[in-house]
Amino acid sequence: MREPLAPGTILGEGAFQIGEVIGEGSFSLTYSALQGEWRLPVAIKEFFPQGARREGSHVLTEPAGVEAFLQEGATLERFYHPGVVRVLGHFRANGTAYLVEELLQGVSLGAGLQQAGSMSEQRILDLASQVGQAMLLVHAAGLIHSDLKPDNLFLTRQGRYVILDFGTARSGQTQLTQREVSPGYSPPEQYERVALTPAADVYALAATLYHLATGGPPPEARARLQGETLAALPPSLSAALVQGLHLDPLQRPASVRAFLSSLGLDVTPRSAQGGLPALESLNSRSAHNGGVYALCLDAGGGRLYSAGRDGCWSCWSWPQLELLSSHKAHETPIQCLALSADGSYLVSGAQDGSVRLWSALAPTQGFPLLERGPAVNGLAFHPRQGLVAASLTNGECCLLGPSLETPIRWSAHQGSANSLAMHPQGSLLATAGDDKAVHLWKLPEATYAGSLLGHQSRVQGVRFMREGAGLLTCCADMTVRAWELESKREVRCLRGHRGMIWAAQAQQNLIFTACADRCLRAFRLDGGRLLVQSEAHEQWVRCLAVDEDSRLLVSGGGDGKICQWRLPVSGAC
Prior knowledge:
Blueprint (H helix, E strand, L loop, with lengths): L9 E2 L4 E9 L3 E8 L4 E8 L5 E3 L2 E3 L2 H15 L9 E7 L2 E7 L3 E3 H8 L4 H20 L2 E2 L8 E4 L4 E3 L6 E2 L26 H17 L6 H5 L9 H10 L11 H7 L17 E7 L5 E7 L4 E6 L3 E6 L5 E6 L5 E6 L5 E6 L4 E5 L7 E4 L5 E6 L6 E5 L3 E5 L7 E4 L5 E6 L5 E6 L4 E5 L4 E6 L6 E7 L4 E6 L4 E5 L5 E5 L6 E7 L2 E6 L3 E6 L5 E6 L5 E7 L4 E6 L3 E6 L7
Antiparallel strand pairs: 1-2, 2-3, 3-4, 4-8, 5-6, 7-8, 9-11, 10-13, 11-12, 14-41, 15-16, 16-17, 17-18, 19-20, 20-21, 21-22, 23-24, 24-25, 25-26, 27-28, 28-29, 29-30, 31-32, 32-33, 33-34, 35-36, 36-37, 37-38, 39-40, 40-41
Helix pairs in contact: 3-4, 4-6
């Protein structure tokens, strides 16, 4: 018997606290765990094959197995399909390897069958379709799962089937030992030292469907070779399942696609984002000719401010979206807006480098804080000191204010300084740039206080989250990353976009993003899974703002419109 890690064990250089064992496979133990300062619930899978043993916390196992486990984990990290368990990361420790996965809520199919018995034909076909679509992706990546069975399929509370335990997944060129079989579900060739093909997974999927139809697994493949026969099957499924369970792999459907077709199911591959729910659209207004570039929401004051390519900023009632006033503020497009903490002042920054301060409640002529120069990419008010921070396309940042005779300037980035964010307490300023870095600056001195490194391309946006305990960064590599501020550790990398991400904002366990591919998206922070996707505008989506109390979101896009949406429930999965 394999000895699990004790609950409370710390792994990953302090990043994870291990809980109870929640799953056990031929090659691994799976634990519940809490991640980081925010104690996000995740699953940790430890490579611990049967036959290995533990000395202290150290696992004594073959290095080649550890390397294969890590390689396969890295492959699974690229999968972004609702039918494949989401792998969030991997690391080495204790002489072995670990995968960080989403922690699913629901029940394994094996446990469900013990409680409910056989399934209806419609439910069998629904499972075949969901799992088959996921297996098309797995096989396209060159992997064979080689252990599909009810215990390795998970049914979430929302009715989504997810393939688990890729601990035995490997390339089709890899040979297997005789121990790596699941009686009833493994085909006869899996008992031999031969390379497997997708036909092996076809057999296992057919065996799983057989179990759903009859209430039990097929006879073990070796027993069938000795003459044991299959049970009677529903007529509508019989021909496809018998063919899928053929003992000769050359007589089976050669691919999952062919097997699904024999069941009469749609074999068109569905994207990872296909079938996702959309945000509920509530309202929209034409706001700025040429595009909306910036939004600021004062939900408590009942006002929304917008600005755009036309050089104007406008004030709208919230949440009614009735136009209250509009002001020609700059001769060139307004790139950014910021609102003071008390909602009294608004500051606008333009493409020509000018920055102006306005009374948000009774606007008159704006007070100039900065004259023409490098374009202004970002603005933020200090919560207490009457200062405004600005980021510029020449890589500089500056502190501005009526009380300053001249702006305080410093070189923040090599290349453009694309965005900035003010800590809620005003103690730090975060800036993002073309140099693939996010830098932190202690205020009011503007002295360097550290960096968040690891982005693969220029960083377009940055925003504080969790009351200043974390940061969201938007990168040109089409990812959004969540970071712990104190440890400067990347907690989550969110994928699934098809263009530049212009903005991101957190609301409890949800992360909302605005993307150049015209879409708004919502992700779960804990599991990193894409939950909601809406084609929100006719052109790019550049900005968004969230009203947590009213559960509303507003977006601005290249079509010149501002659009209002209802937020999804945070617990959706």
